[in-house]
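The data are passed on as follows:
___
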Amino acid sequence: MSDEKKANPVARMGSRIARFVREMRSEMKKVVWPGRKQLVNNTMIVVVAVLVVGAVIAGFDIVCKWLLDSIVELLQMVV
């Protein structure tokens, strides 16, 4: 049996955590972080997209409310 298999569960867990941290640090060094200009540009794109989607949802909400109010008013006239 290998030494890792013989070690107690706590020691195995500790070695797994240590390996995870080493691998995470190695991967983080490979990340290409955006510059300030790209970060500002991407942020503005997200803000504009959120505003457009919000406007579309608000418009849909207004149309649905108008439609439901019209249906309720028609039903009240009938009854």
Q: What stands out?
A: The two ends are 84 Å apart (CA to CA). The chain has a mean pLDDT of 91.
